[in-house]
Amino acid sequence: MESRGTFASKIGIVLATAGSAVGLGNVWRFPYETGMNGGAAFLLIYLGCLLILGLPAMLCEFIVGRHAQQNATRAYGGWPWKLVGYMGVLTGFIIMGFYSVVAGWTLQYVFAAIAGHLQGDADYIQRYFAEFTNNPIKPVMWTLVFICITHIVIVHGVQKGIEKASKIMMPVLFLLLILLVICSLMLPNSSIGVEFLFHPDFSKVTHSTFFEALGQTFFTLSTGMACLVTYASYFAKDVNLTRSAFQIAAIDTLVALLSGLIIFPAAFSVGVQPDAGPSLIFITLPNVFQQAFASIPILGYLIGIIFYILLVLAALTSIISMHETPTAFVSEEFGLGRKNGARIVTVLAMLTGALCSLSLGPVPELQIFGKTLFDFFDFLSANVLLTLGGFLTSIYVGWIMPHKIVRDQMTNWGTLSGRYFHIFVFVVKYICPVGMLFIFLHQFGMV
């Protein structure tokens, strides 16, 4: 039987797992949520949610994964809890299906930026995006290319594939972020964008702000879809799970804030009010970069290219973890080995991604319950499966898993301090499930 891989270094663990959390959502969702919900006021609420709920939820998945040292479906033990693992694998695969479509768009935009195809007024950029997404071939092609790139990383294993790629991509991602932040902050009126992001406006804080902060916490940390459980199954016994969780959350939040310092100063420097969603990065920003650096066209040209390379890296680090979860399941449950397991997942992901892409443009008839396949998968994962997976995992660790096992994992079998163990157990047993339940109800307008 093929032996399971493990991460070779602690820095590799942090970078790979942080890469799972860092994604396209960091670039547009977090800055937008911050700006629309009171700026620094939202940040304070978010950080509170991160400390009280997000980190315990992440730690729960680390505990389950490292204790089991197996794929997600085996990590939760016997029935019926085994279903939580199956649901996590399914959730990661579903997200990979539609997420790879948007990831493919980032690849298209890198080459479009290099070729100068993103030069033009706002109407031209909007038409370009509409024509591209409605094309029956191009979006599907780029979706398949992105999945193939992910496959290349996955088949090389944990150390030579995931860890090695993360050690290259994450530092490059940060260098590009810092470079773009510097350029954005040098623009005229950039201070307005900074104020938009960081100024505390408590008049915008409502009960919905707390739900948005809670939702962002679990969304951005990749909890609820078994990616963290799978990655933790490759952790060595001497890894400090609590410290790793703090480091990963800090990196994820820093990427989101740096993204905001790119987008908002640039947007406000040309008088553009940013909108949420993919339209921000695929329709609004190309024209923003062009206008903001109009006095130095070559700089605007280079900034556009660098920005979309940044998006490719952010998307790739996330999709790698989404691919790894079902790959570990298929290869171990069916005894096929990593390469064969990865091939099966890749083929299925390519089929799913192609159908999701077609549903957005040339074949809108691809629908489930009145939603395009892309939108249905997005809704199902974000509004149901992610929250439900996090909820059940907190119940499992807090109420089902023996507390001795939980303590052993948190303290590395007594070699680390267990000072906050009882606080952690209380939060996981009571606060996390209630918080996730409220998020679930809020998403359906019930609270």
Which structural class should the secondary elements be placed in?
A: mainly alpha
State which percent range the strand residues make up: under 5%
The mean pLDDT is 90
Order of helices and strands: HHHHHHHHHHHHHHHEEHHH
Work out the helix count: 18
Calculate the terminal CA-CA distance, rounded to whole Å: 50 Å
What does this structure look like?
With 447 residues, this protein is mainly α. The protein is 77% helix and 1% strand. It is built from 18 helices and 2 strands. Strands 1-2 form a two-stranded antiparallel ribbon. Strand 1 (367-368) and strand 2 form a beta hairpin. The longest helix has 37 residues, at 297-333. The protein is globular, with a radius of gyration of 21 Å. It starts with 9 loop residues before the first helix and ends with a helix. The mean pLDDT is 90.
Summarize the structure.
By secondary structure, this protein is an all-alpha fold. It has helices at residues 10-21, 24-36, 40-68, 72-75, 82-115, 122-134, 138-155, 157-185, 190-198, 207-220, 227-232, 241-269, 278-292, 297-333, 338-360, 373-400, 403-411, 421-443, and strands at residues 367-368, 371-372.
List the helices and strands and how they pair.
Blueprint: H1 10-21, H2 24-36, H3 40-68, H4 72-75, H5 82-115, H6 122-134, H7 138-155, H8 157-185, H9 190-198, H10 207-220, H11 227-232, H12 241-269, H13 278-292, H14 297-333, H15 338-360, E1 367-368, E2 371-372, H16 373-400, H17 403-411, H18 421-443
Antiparallel strand pairs: 1-2
Helix pairs in contact: 1-8, 1-12, 1-14, 2-10, 2-12, 3-10, 3-12, 3-16, 3-17, 3-18, 5-7, 5-14, 5-15, 5-16, 6-13, 7-8, 7-14, 7-15, 8-12, 8-14, 9-12, 10-18, 12-13, 13-14, 14-15, 16-18
